[in-house]
Amino acid sequence: MKIAVLPGDGIGTEIVAEAVKVLNVLDLKFEMETALVGGAAYEAHGHPLPESTLKLAKDADAVLFGAVGDWKYDKLDRPLRPEQAILGLRKNLGLFANFRPAICYEQLVGASSLKPELIAGLDILIIRELTGDIYFGQPRGRRTAVDGHFPGAEEAFDTMRYSRPEIERIARVAFEAARKRSKRVTSVDKANVLETFQFWKDVVTEVHKDYPDVELDHMYVDNAAMQLVRAPKKFDVVVTGNMFGDILSDEAAMLTGSIGMLPSASLNSSNQGLYEPSHGSAPDIAGKGIANPLATILSAAMMLRFSLNQPQAADRIESAVKDVLASGLRTADIWSEGNAGSASLRKVGTREMGDAVVAAITKTITKG
Ligand code: IPM
Ligand code: MG
Prior knowledge:
By secondary structure, this protein is an alpha/beta fold. The chain is built from twelve helices and twelve strands. It has a ten-stranded mixed beta sheet, sandwiched between helices. Strands 11-12 form a two-stranded parallel sheet. The two termini are 24 Å apart. 3-isopropylmalic acid binds next to helix 4.
């Protein structure tokens, strides 16, 4: 089992280190190799996704990814910015299916900005198409940019497009995923305004004919954004394009009050995958040892399940994370000042949280 480890920038290195620690206590044989990506790779090699990093990722069964980006790169020409590394990995590895679960952990109900009854038990799965849409439209790079901006320009544009096969394959992924859950899919579009998303809606409807056991409804993206805060539990599987999925998945993640807890998987048609936390590189807290490593640790669990065919090891990590939360450990992002008086809760840093997960796993291994 070959894993390319790409920590990236900001808190990326700190949280990935914890996930690697967790993988190493599982009694499984991994070949792990680490490489630079994002701003860190730009500093060292002049490019956010060097050939050597891309090759390592392509040759691996799975990529464990931290996060990329820092405001200090905002002046770089767009192709050299850290974000291009993750976009390049997605495109080059064909990682078209992005799974972004939004799960509300029982112990963290109070961390949400919504009323507890709205989100208790929330478990939705956003499936975002990841290699098409306006993110990869034509023309790209036909620009007169100076320092990444357009002084004096009269217009700028990006084009939105989807092909039939691109929509068909992501629709199938969503219907298959729904079959393993509550058999409901909401396809999110903007068919009332955009040709691309009328086409999206038509193709999803056609593919649905092969899945008569799954219920399908369609929703405009603005309404979906509203329904997500009004009655999030009405959703189960949500499938949408790259751009809307980017926005809705952040919204859904934060509903749970704990974006620091949510993993994600990006898969291609041969189940090779990239696994990363749903949050970003958080340069404001980088190096302080306070970031929550659980989203990355849970991403490693998704990696074991989807790409490495080790579902039991994945279960073991996930139940260790639940144990650690139940034992009262909280990183700053899931800590509220109201907790301070509670004897059962304790604020911890990145490393202590990782160590606690390791300890919970070793305990279950010893118990057999
Ligand atoms: C995400 C991020 C990326 C995206 C950025 C970093 C390019 O926001 O994974 O959601 O827009 O896809
Ligand atoms: Mg995003």
